[in-house]
Amino acid sequence: MPSVLPFDPPQRLVRALEAQPDAQAAATAASWLRGLPELLARWLERWELTPERVVSPGGRSSLVVLVRQADGTPAALKLVAPDGAPAPDRALRESAALARWDGLCAARLLRAEPGEGALLLERLHGEVSLRALPEAKATLEAVSVVRRLWVPAGDAGGVFETVAEHTRTEAALMRAGAPAEVRPLVDAALEAREELLGSTGDGGEPVLLHGDFRQGAVLSGGERAPWLTVGPDPLVGEAAYDLARLTRDRLHDLMASSGAASSVRRRVHKLADSLDVERERVRGWTLYRAVESGVRNLSAGARADGEMLLDFATWL
C-alpha cells in the first residue's frame, strides 16, 4: 500500500467548510474532514499512487495532493468535499466540464470517480499562476484562456446548472441575510440580475462557463501549454457572467490605489471589448457577483472581506 503523508488539512479548507450556511451542511463537512486521512489512504491504494505533498494553502472545497502514478508520471489527486447537496454533485460537474474541454486550456482529467468525490488530474505548475505576471500581461493571457473555454456544453449539458438556476438560490440567501445598511446595494444587484436574465443582448448562445475564472485559477502548463485553468465550478450561461470574477482580481491592490473607481470601470470596458461582450452586461454581472460575495462574507463573519467587496460594488 502506498505510504500516506501525515498531515493536517490546510486551514483555508477547514475554515471554509466550518463556515457552512446551516447546521446539517456543517455537520456533513466536519464528518468529511474527520475521515479525510482514511479517504486519502483509500484512493492512494486504489489508484496505485505515491503521495509527495499536500498542496497548501490549497482551495476551499477540496484537498489536493501531488502524487506519482505507478509508472512514475506526476499527477494531482483531488478529493472534493460535500457541498451541502448530494455529495457527488461538485465532483460530477467538475469532471464533466474537464472531460468536455479535454485539455483545451484546462488541466486534463486522467481518472475520475465523481460519485465518490475523487478526481485524478494532470499536474500543472501550481506555484506559478497568472498572478505572477504584471497585470496587463496577466489580463491578456486570461482573455486568451477563457475565450477557448466557452464551448457548447454538448451532451453533458444536463449535468450543469444554468446561471439562472444557480443565482436563484444565491438571490434568496442575499435577501434573507443582508444587513439593513447594505439593502440598497443588494436591491441594485438583484435588479441587475433580473434585467440580465430577462434579456439576451448580443450575448449569443449559452456556453459552458468556468464559473470561478480568475488569474489564480490559471496555472503554468509547462511543455504542453503556457497556461491552463483549474478548479472550475461550471455553469451554462452567457459569457459575461464568467468575466465578473476576473474583473475584481487583485482587489487588495486595487483598493489601495488612487483612482480605483475609474480603474474598475476601465477594466470592465477592456475585458468586454477584448472578448466582444457587451460592456453593460459585464458591469451588471460584476455588480451582482461582488454584492453576493460581499453579503456571503459578512454572513460568515469575514467582515473585512465583505466590506471590501461591497465597496468595490459601489464603483459599478
UniProtKB/TrEMBL annotation:
GO biological process, one term: secondary metabolic process
A Pfam match: APH_6_hur
Keyword Kinase: yes
Top-level taxon in the UniProt lineage: Bacteria
SUPFAM superfamilies for the chain: Protein kinase-like (PK-like) (SSF56112)
Keyword field: Kinase, Transferase
InterPro entries: Kinase-like_dom_sf, NH2Glyco/OHUrea_AB-resist_kin
Protein name per UniProt: Kinase
Organism annotation: Streptomyces boncukensis
